[in-house]
Amino acid sequence: RMDMCVGASDVAVRHIASNCRKLKHLTMAVDQISDQSLLSLAEFCPLLETLDVAFCHQLTSDAFVVLAQKCPKISQLNLCLVESFGDSALSAIANNGKLVDINVRGCQQLSDESLLVVAAKCPNLRVLLLWDCPFVSSRAVKSVKEGCPLALIMY
């Protein structure tokens, strides 16, 4: 866990990733990290399953797309208030079909487009937290409910 670590940086994440190549779970809710941290995880940690980057405001969708390609086992994501996390990123991660638990509260770039991918590709989804996602419609939520019948969806 790297949440609330004063001085945590992209350099620290790269060091951890390069020395812990079997890393499966990481919490790093630290605003000082950037896309470089996600790219380090993508490069060195292909077994990554759980990632909590809540409140990491510097992260962008582009880095998450790369992470989805290199870390296809990601099943749990906490992206609370990662404002620039958008449809391309969620679609790339959902296309791996592994998502079980995802918190995208406050990800204001998301729309129905990526939720329809989740509905089609993630039948084992159990939790979807969607508060404060203004471009997600009730139609998309209904599609997720139909495609992911076990999911608890809060929006």
Brief digest:
By secondary structure, the chain is α/β, with parallel strands linked by helices. The chain contains 6 helices and 6 strands. It has helices spanning 10-19, 35-44, 61-70, 87-94, 112-121, 138-147; strands at 25-27, 50-52, 76-78, 101-103, 127-129, 152-154.
Can you describe this structure?
This protein is an alpha/beta fold and 155 residues long. It is built from six helices and six strands. Strands 1-2-3-4-5-6 form a six-stranded parallel β-sheet, covered by helices on one side. Strand 4, helix 5 (112-121) and strand 5 form a beta-alpha-beta unit. The chain is globular and about 45 Å long. The two termini are 28 Å apart. The model has no long low-confidence stretch (mean pLDDT 94).
List descriptors.
6 strands, 6 helices, alpha/beta, six-stranded parallel beta sheet, 155 residues
